[in-house]
Specification:
The complex is a heterodimer of chains A (406) and B (160). Chain A is built from 18 helices and 8 strands. With 406 residues, chain A is an alpha+beta fold. The chains are: A alpha+beta (406), B alpha/beta (160).
């Protein structure tokens, strides 16, 4: 170093004192590795992060306000747009909260289809996470392979609901409609191809020493801190906490399925990566079991004042036609009360607080988004890390800004 | 759903200090405890420290409408990562004094939840380390989730 300085021409001034000072830089909101419009205000000492302040709200669209002006069944379409990588999970949390208030149970086939679709959606969501996480770290091609798998699932969701990213498939009291003919065959086809893809990801990403050295012992957060920060989902299971709401607070019959809760003890980016990879195999197991359980039967609850009747019934029965008209034109009244329903979404605990005043529109709907809470822990995770590792940590949190800003 | 284990926690709270529990509601498989505003820190501290409610799952405010009194409520959804029970604490607040003690000293996650509640409903959390707006811009006028705030706002908002 000193020899290099001595060899410089004499008219160049070397500024040594600037090395001591800290620098504030703004990362985002238009930065590809912040996964949307997230802005981070980083205070740096050289390349080391001293302090991080996330700045969110660029995507705020006032959805919680909008819920109060929409009927219960209209709110489902808003939930699609929150966590747009896991819309069926959002649908499920919302409709189950409303069903809890209405105290209606949906039949066996409806529940199995809900589990089936949610697990397919979880695989699709994890595929986007894997692709973008690897892309952030510098592995370009994984992204294309992941999106190829995700495309197959989106095609399945499209076949069932008509929408790829915004399915609105789950309705209060059941489903939009039953699965189309040939769905099971296409789903089995996907399951046949999927293990080969997983093998490829394991070789391509997990076995990659570059990826390992970029993720191991990066973004450490202890178990106690994680719980205090409210971190849930795969990020908490990477700290060795065996907590999965599908088993802790079971819903839609998850307790009857046979699957494991993968945990790791590393508490770092690599541990979160391993938990999610192992979760993909568990989801695959659940999808297989759900396919076996699909028996013909009704998919909608027997609650004519809440659930839209079938088209065929409307042509034959006067009362079905009247119910249809009333539900669409006036909505249905939901008994007074408040519930908090939490499900295990692909990113963590997705909770819906719903308060009803007895009318056809909710008084208050609040979404506890897992991304929102997990992101709030980011400043603690990246403190003292290099700036290049910040993107690795953001990737490991798997955030979706649509859900954070709402 | 069986709420028997949840009532045990209510009994323990009452045994600790009977003034902590103003009202208990058992509905739809969930137990809601209304806590006096002054006691919220003590109650949370007791439930977190002695009863293992170590995760604050959610904190959200709600506006009952300008004609109601008390107008605001703050809901604390506690969860335990060991015995998996959920409990809801509720604090009722008057419109002219919407202040409640912050629980950030117990759970760090309360930081952003309280900022969001302050931003959208105007509920002030005393002794919060950094009570700024979080979702809306810092120069935004009013609190958008209040019932008397119109859906489309008062005038078109411009960032410039």
């Amino acid at each position: 170093m000193s020899t290099a300085v001595e060899n410089l021409p004499s008219d160049i001034e070397v500024l040594d004192e600037s090395l001591d000072s800290q620098m504030t830089i703004s990362m985002g909101p238009q930065h590809p590795s912040t996964h949307g419009v997230l802005r981070l205000e980083l205070i740096l000492d050289g390349e080391v992060v001293v302090k991080t302040t996330p700045d969110i709200g660029y995507l705020h669209t006032g959805m919680e306000k909008l819920f109060e002006y929409k009927k219960y069944q209209q709110g489902i379409t808003i939930t699609d747009r929150m966590d747009y990588l896991n819309p069926l999970g959002n649908n499920l949390a919302y409709v189950m909260a409303a069903e809890k208030l209405l105290q209606i149970e949906i039949p066996e086939r409806g529940q199995v289809i809900r589990v089936l679709m949610c697990e397919l959606q979880r695989i699709a969501s994890h595929m986007v996470w894997l692709g973008t996480h690897a892309l952030d770290i510098g592995a370009m091609s994984v992204f294309f392979f992941c999106f190829r798998q995700r495309e197959k699932i989106l095609n399945l969701i499209e076949a069932a609901s008509g929408g790829r990213m915004t399915p609105s498939y789950f309705r209060i009291g059941g489903l939009m409609m039953d699965l189309p003919a040939g769905f099971e065959r296409r789903c089995k086809q996907f399951l046949e191809d999927f293990p080969a893809a997983m093998d490829m990801f394991e070789t391509l990403v997990s076995g990659n020493t570059l990826f390992q050295s970029r993720t191991k012992e990066i973004g450490y957060m202890s178990k106690e801190d994680s719980i205090s920060w409210g971190v849930t989902g795969p990020c908490l299971r990477a700290c060795g906490v065996e907590l999965d709401l599908r088993i802790a607070n079971p819903y839609t019959g998850y307790e009857t399925y046979d699957f494991d809760i993968p945990t790791e003890t590393g508490c770092d980016v690599w541990a979160r990566f391993r938990v999610r990879m192992r979760e993909l195999y568990e989801s695959e197991k659940i999808v297989k079991q759900a396919l076996e359980r699909l028996k013909p039967g009704p998919t909608k609850a027997d609650a004519p004042k809440v659930v839209l009747p079938d088209r065929d019934d409307m042509r034959k029965h006067m009362d079905s036609l009247i119910h249809h008209f009333l539900i669409v034109a006036e909505g249905f009244n939901v008994p007074e009360g408040e519930v908090y329903h939490a499900i295990e979404a692909s990113k963590g605990e997705l909770g819906v607080y719903m308060k009803s005043n007895g009318g056809p529109k909710p008084e208050r709907v609040h979404f506890r988004g897992p991304s929102f809470v997990n992101l709030s822990a980011l400043p603690d995770m990246v403190e003292g890390e290099l700036i290049a590792d910040v993107v690795a940590v953001i990737g490991s949190l798997d955030i979706v800004l649509g859900e954070i800003d709402r | 759903m069986n709420t028997e284990p949840l009532h045990n926690f209510v009994e323990k709270l009452k045994a600790q200090n009977s003034s902590w529990v103003a009202d208990v509601k058992d509905a739809l498989g969930e137990v809601t405890i209304t806590v006096p505003r002054e006691a919220i820190i003590d109650v949370c501290n007791f439930l977190k420290g002695e009863q293992d409610f170590d995760l604050l799952a959610d904190l959200c405010g709600s506006d009952c409408g300008p004609e109601e009194d008390p107008r605001f409520e703050v809901n604390y959804h506690l969860f335990s990562t060991t015995h998996y029970n959920r409990l809801r604490l509720k604090v009722l607040l008057m419109e002219d004094e919407p202040n409640v003690e912050s629980v950030t000293s117990l759970w760090k996650t309360a930081n952003w939840h309280e900022r969001e509640t302050y931003d959208l409903l105007g509920i002030v959390f005393d002794n919060h380390p950094d009570l700024r707006r979080i979702l809306l811009p810092s120069d935004f006028d009013g609190h958008a989730l209040r019932k008397d705030y119109p859906l489309r706002g008062y005038e078109p908002y411009s960032l410039s």
